[in-house]
Write a structure and sequence with these properties.
The complex is a heterodimer of chains A (84) and B (233). With 84 residues, chain A is α+β, with helices and mostly antiparallel strands. Chain A has 2 helices and 3 strands; from the N terminus they run E-H-E-H-E. Chain A has one domain: Mth169, Chain: A, CATH 3.30.1280. The relative contact order of chain B is 0.17. The model of chain B has no long low-confidence stretch (mean pLDDT 97). Classes of the chains: A alpha+beta (84), B alpha/beta (233). At the A-B interface, helix 1 of A face loops of B.
């Protein structure tokens, strides 16, 4: 089966995000004063083969922990979809 | 003293490190290619140089830590061999889990290339034993991701075990916000592991090892390694 994984990596709560801070400032300058916080992260799209959803999930989770996110500073989450 | 300098695609301080190890210090030094499976001989010092290994893709050091040669670097480290990671080398050691913590983007979002003042917090390590206790080192930095971060527990452990060896300070040796070039937590510029054979530092000692370059303070790091090796062989 083919699967698509949409993976989101963001800085952990409490870790300073200077890029997010800079984007907030720019949005405020443009007049979007309602914006309270911006978090800048990474979005990755993986296409993979796996025998079933359970296996795909296990593999993607391991990839996140080992390489795609640095869990000292980052959190990750993902959505898995079966591709027709 | 046998030294190996790991070369990754994108390393760019490897030749400077070679010059200092071989010409200035007189170490028997080899370049070691990242894709090799094994070291060709047993080294005393493995130096992981600065640069932009693998283009800093994903995160600085994230991909380099999975290079073939890292298995032998790990073996070298666990048998107590000296490992010195400079700048990108420090980032790689963090990603590899050989040192605790992680690097964030500089808090001002700029690449900072400058001479900084460093206070030596522990002179009883293989990397600092030849430095006068009160000396403030003048060594350059050049990085975008040098904002050292670790959780509170890790920082406490580092402090309690005297594993923080270098902090950014002003010219009077005081830890201040103004002296911090990147936002690093507690002005940390360099640390060692618990057994003190692995050192990561953001400043570039290899760029300050000859008087014609404006400072010889970086040479003290190499002098220290040589002294420790000489005293313990």
């Amino acid at each position: 089966m083919k699967y698509t994984a949409n993976i989101y990596v963001t800085l952990k709560e409490g870790v300073l995000d200077p890029q997010g801070g800079a984007v907030v400032n720019s949005l405020h300058t443009l007049g979007y004063s309602e914006v309270e916080e911006v978090k800048v992260g990474k979005y990755m799209i993986l296409e993979l083969d796996a025998s079933n959803m359970e296996v795909a999930k296990e593999r993607v989770d391991e990839m996140c922990r080992r390489l795609l996110a640095n869990t000292v500073i980052e959190d990750y989450k993902y959505e898995l979809k079966e591709v027709e | 003293m046998k030294a190996g300098i790991i070369v990754y695609p994108g390393s760019n301080c490897d030749a400077d490190a070679m010059h200092v190890c071989q010409e200035v210090m007189g170490f028997e030094t080899d370049y070691v290619w990242h894709a090799d499976r094994n070291f060709s001989k047993q080294y005393d010092l493995i130096l992981i140089p600065g640069g932009f290994s693998y283009g800093d893709y994903l995160r600085s050091g994230a991909i380099a830590r999975f290079a073939n040669i890292m298995e032998d670097v790990n073996k070298h480290a666990s048998r107590g061999g000296y490992v010195l990671g400079i700048c990108n080398g420090f980032q790689i050691l963090l990603e590899a889990g050989l040192l605790p913590g992680a690097m964030l983007r500089n808090n001002h979002l700029k690449f900072r290339c400058d001479h900084v003042n460093l206070r030596v917090e522990n002179i009883n390590t293989p990397f600092t034993n030849s430095i006068d206790k009160n000396k403030i080192l003048n060594i350059p930095i050049a990085h975008m991701d040098g904002n050292y971060f670790a959780d509170k527990e890790t920082i406490k452990k580092l402090n309690d075990n005297n594993q923080v060896i270098l902090r950014y300070v002003n010219k009077d040796g005081e830890v201040t916000k103004g002296a911090n070039p990147n936002g690093a937590i507690e002005n940390i510029a360099g640390i060692v592991n618990e057994s003190m054979n692995i050192c990561g530092m953001m400043p570039h000692p290899e760029r300050a090892a000859e008087s014609m370059l404006g400072s010889v303070d970086g040479k003290l790091i190499f002098d220290s390694i040589l002294k420790h090796w000489g005293d313990n062989k």
